Every structure is written in C-alpha cells, then in structure tokens.
Amino acid sequence: MIEPQNKAQAGAEVELRSLSRFYGSFTAVHDVNLQVAPGEFVTFLGPSGSGKSTTLMMIAGFTIPSQGDVRVDGRSIIAQPVHKRNIGMVFQNYALFPHLDVARNVAFPLEMRNIPQAEVRERVARALRLVRLEEFENRRPRQLSGGQQQRVALARALVYEPPILLLDEPLGALDAKLREEMKFELKQLHHKIGATILFVTHDQEEALTLSDRIVVFNKGGISQIGSPDELYNAPSNRFVADFIGETNLLSGAVDSVNGDNCTIRLPGGARLYGPLRKGFDTPRKSACFTLRLESVRLGDAAIGLDNQFEGVIEEFLFIGNARKYLIRLAPDLTITARAPTQQQGIVLKPGTRLQVGWPASEMLMVESA
Ligand SMILES: Nc1ncnc2c1ncn2[C@@H]1O[C@H](COP(=O)(O)OP(=O)(O)O)[C@@H](O)[C@H]1O
Ligand SMILES: [Mg+2]
Predict the structure, then answer these.
(1) Which residue owns the Cα nearest ligand 1 atom 24?
(2) Topology of the domain covering 246-366
C-alpha cells in the first residue's frame, strides 16, 4: 500500500456490491463485486463495450444502478446525488470552459461550493503546482497543448481534494509521447495526493504500468482481478491471458494425465506436454494452455526440451530490441515467438527451418471460457 504524503487527503475505501446495469433486455454491467482499499490505484481494463465506463458512472452517480450497491468507507452512497458524492472526475473529452482562463477553470468546483476567495486562490495555486502548471494560470485552454489541457482537467478534479478520483480514459486523446509522459505524472501525483484512484482504460500497457491492481472486464462482468504481475504471469482464463500481454493459446483434447502433467492433442494432431494447475480441476476432456512469446526457444536452445518441433519461419517483425517470429510447426499449428535481435549467429529469415521448443513448466493451464 502506498503511504500518502499528505494524510489529510488520504483516500477512501470503495466497495461495489453486486453492481448491475440493464438497458431493457441488454446487460451492460453484471454482478460486479469489488473492494478497493484507501489510496489504492485500481484500473478497469477491458475491450470497448465491456462495461467499464458504465461501472464508473454508477460510482460517480451519473448512472443509476439497476441492482447492487456502491459503498464509500462502509456507507452506501446510492441515494446521494452526484454533487454530494465528493468524487473527482476526469473524462476522455475533458471539457474545459473555453472562455475562462486556467485558474478560473480550476477554481470552478470550489466556487460552486461557496469556498471563500482567499482559500480558493490558495487551493487553485496548490492544485496547479501539483500538475506543474503554475505558470499558466492566466492562459485560456486554446493556448495550451493537449497534455496541458488534460492537466488542467486533472487539477480541476483534484482541487477540492476528493478522497476518490475517477479517471475515464483520461489519456486517450493524447498522442503517444504525451501519453507516456502523463502516465508518469499520474503515478507521481497519486503518490503525492494519496487519493483512491479508479482508472478506466482499454490499453493494457497503461494498466500494467499504473495500477496496484487491475480489474479485467469482459462482456459486462469481471473476468479476473489481480496485480499486474498476477494477471501477466498467472491469468486464470483464456480471455485474460490473451488480453494482457501477447501469448500463444494452445488448446486440445486431453490424451493422458500423468502425475502433475498432462498431454494434449491439438486439432492438427501435434501433442503438447504441460503441467496441471493447482486449484484447477484436472481436465478430463480438453485443456487450454497459454505460452508466452518469450518462452519459445529457437535453434540449439530448443533441443531436448519437453516440447520440441521442427519449424519453419513464416514471417518476422522487427520490434526494436527484439524480433517477433511467426513459426509454422505443423500444417495446422503456428506459434509466435519473440527473441532478441542478436541470436548467436542464426539468421532467421522467412523459410528458415529450425528447432523450436519450450519446457512444459513454461506453459500455464487456463480456463477456456
Ligand atoms: N445509455 C445506454 N443505453 C443503452 N446501452 C448502453 C448505454 N450506455 C452504455 N450502453 C451499452 O453498455 C455496454 C457497456 O458500455 P460501456 O460501459 O460504455 O463500455 P466501455 O466503457 O467498457 O467501453 C455497451 O454495449 C454500450 O453500448
Ligand atoms: Mg468507456
């Protein structure tokens, strides 16, 4: 847990209980249960339409839940209107007031709350310092870059020191380089203010770098909750394995189970040897394994491993310090591997035949649903 530097602003605990939202017969969010600790940075990650924003909007109060409850520090806030919830919000299209300068934009939530002028000035100055825009207080939004405007929106959300901050794809409108910068700023800001942050994104890299925990959404429900490390290294199901990081998903009929391992037969007939998974039922019919790209060994390094094939390079992609290879192992079986650009002397061009292999222990069984 992160220790906030300013305890007065420490975050609130947020709990979602069986939260659901239906639109007619359509289920936008289904039975979401989640407990967020004070000061935690939790990201809702999932494809477009998976229910992330709807969940956030129910926390904010803009959308009324069909079922379930939202609790802050142990008390239900369902009956409270938006402006009474004391929750800061920033959305993807952070509409600033174009006719007001930066300071007035940031002051707006305080003026709404009838805070005395002297205090408004002090708090606006503090919020602008936090987002490093103190020198821009007299500019209009159109005189700022996209990233600076985004920081003004953040300052406006932070200015009344809410114990909860909701951020819905706040970096989505920025170009790649700015987004990268803002990621670091957000992280630093979180350390400084100690607020509980619920952050929505469809970008796995953003989620992995920023979050204490990630909630993976799929089709309106939670697919898995875990730390970035847990989700990357121990995805519980096919969807999460595929959505977080790149992977090969290999599923087939169970041929035999021996001890802690099993052999599966892929549709094309190839056999794979992989470990059973603790906490999972021993599969009787079919099983699915995830195999990370970096686990696939090429050339001599593949010889003698539990799973070994002769493959042919079909395609490669240059990705800076590494290359990604699409390799055909059998008529119905291709896998993707990633290897450092400098492979000891092997030239891996399309058409190259080579040994390809990986240890059983580097495959991980996942639920196929
Ligand atoms: N007001 C609405 N009326 C009908 N359907 C809606 C409404 N709001 C959202 N939805 C639907 O609910 C699903 C989840 O939407 P949303 O929470 O915005 O997804 P996400 O933020 O994960 O992209 C989508 O299929 C969306 O079309
Ligand atoms: Mg959304």
Answers:
(1) 49
(2) OB fold (Dihydrolipoamide Acetyltransferase, E2P) (2.40.50)
